[in-house]
Amino acid sequence: MFSLLRPLGLLTLLASSCLVGAQNLTVVDPAAACTALGQNLALENVTVNFAEYLPAGTNLSLSQGYNLSTCGRASQVVPVDLCRITMYVATTNRSGITLEGWLPTNWTGRFLMTGNGGVSGCIQYEDVAYATSFGFATFGQNNGHNGTRGYAFYQNSDVVEDFIYRGLYTGTVVGKQITNTYYTQSLSTSFYLGCSTGGRQGWKMIQDYPEVFDGVVVGAPALYFPALTSWSGTFYTILGNSSSDTFVSADLWVAVNTEIMNQCDGIDGVMDGIIEDTLLCNFRPEAMQCAPGVNNSTTCLTSAQVGAVRQVFTDYYGLDGLLVFPKMQPGSELLARYIYYGGTDFSYTTDWFRYVVYEDPSWDPASYTRADAKAAIDQNPFNAMTGNGDLSAFQKHGGKVLHWHGEADYIITSDNSPRYYNHVSETMGLPSSELDDFYRFFRVSGTGHCQGGAGAHMVGQQAAESAATDPQNNVLARIITWVEDGNAPETITGTKYVNDDATQGVAFVRNHCKYPLRNVYTGPANYTQPEAWTCI
């Protein structure tokens, strides 16, 4: 019988002890304590692989077997002195998770769980290291399978269940127990950090297990997952391949982007190559219609191409006339042209339909229709939609959630996040002034999928997206102060370096507004200065 809801039997480790300082809890003789943790840990359904003490600066080589080479994480530098423990946790008799914890010697009393991406079973070591550098006892897990594809879902609903919610929940329960054991005292506060699928995972915990976390950072969440996966499959059928009359080449997408900026960039008051509120951009591709007799141009669209581009930027409705997923937001095409518009299928969509929806490895993504979207949404295994708008239990718990989304996201349209925020407001009957107590959503202009872009995208979602400025310009730091000090963010501040290179200096800084407010250039300062913008 597999159960992680009952109390887990633990052994107290006499080799470890802690000294409570003003801010940090320090493990005495951490190397011995780490060895003892690996040797003596006794948890139901848990098999420890190893535990090792690692000093700060260790360049850790990561095993790349079992499809993990696709994860692209061959090594990771350890940021602080810590105990690393890895284990297998069985969730059923045919499924389980690989779980890993990094326990810093100078612990702050805080716990953090990291999320994943796509349909992958990759521990995001860069996020584990990032959170550990803040003094969190940090854990990550592999969603019940290895690698970046969904092959393991085939004819194994237990693995699907691990992917949807159980891997994260199980890893969190076990991770907290190990944290309390290693430091021989209970953790004080509990946090979560995730983006994309990791964002959906965070919302899943808030909705179904509202007392698990005190503070949650969710970026670009993959909410309404079966619907999102269906929407992602539409672009291949809308645009076709390079031989289709509807296909738009990569070069031509550059021209489309230029026209989008011509039509929409100035809505916020300044032409700076960034659209501050993509919901206000009603792009008209017909403005790019080729003149009669003009063919094979790289600056205009044929009638067939105009129709296809119009579909890309139109909300996607199902057979029942209800919204499946919002339109792709304008401004993301320079990267979306390689992800969705390149004339090939999208692997996450293909995997979901082949191995989960139909359990048919021969299913052809070129055959996709609205009937397939209905099948995926109707199936909705383990409520993968993650669209529950009633967050009252999380609110009662005292939890806080900081939700953000880049407005040039080329994988999950940013239009989906205000859709969910509005759904919560309607479901709970709360205006924004009341939601603010526990739920705040920020739109981050000019930012791609979880990172990068023309805008001030460095908001602290991950180490590579953290600017060396005021630590309050960091979503992870902000969720800590909101939970522990009641200091709720009114804006989140992003930084843009010249050519995205910190050695070349800061290009501009921008305060990103809390929804439903939007950023407008009001001057008189230069638009590169944060004080030149006002949230209205």
Automatic annotation (TrEMBL):
InterPro entries for this protein: AB_hydrolase_fold (IPR029058), Tannase/feruloyl_esterase (IPR011118)
Catalytic activity: feruloyl-polysaccharide + H2O = ferulate + polysaccharide
Record-level Gene Ontology MF annotations: feruloyl esterase activity; metal ion binding
EC code(s) of this entry: 3.1.1.-
Keywords for the protein's UniProt record, in alphabetical order: Calcium, Carbohydrate metabolism, Disulfide bond, Hydrolase, Metal-binding, Polysaccharide degradation, Serine esterase, Signal, Xylan degradation
Signal peptide: 1-22
Pfam (any one): Tannase
An individual GO BP term: xylan catabolic process
Presence of keyword Hydrolase: yes
Family classification: Belongs to the tannase family.
Name of this chain's protein: Carboxylic ester hydrolase
Source organism per UniProt: Coleophoma cylindrospora
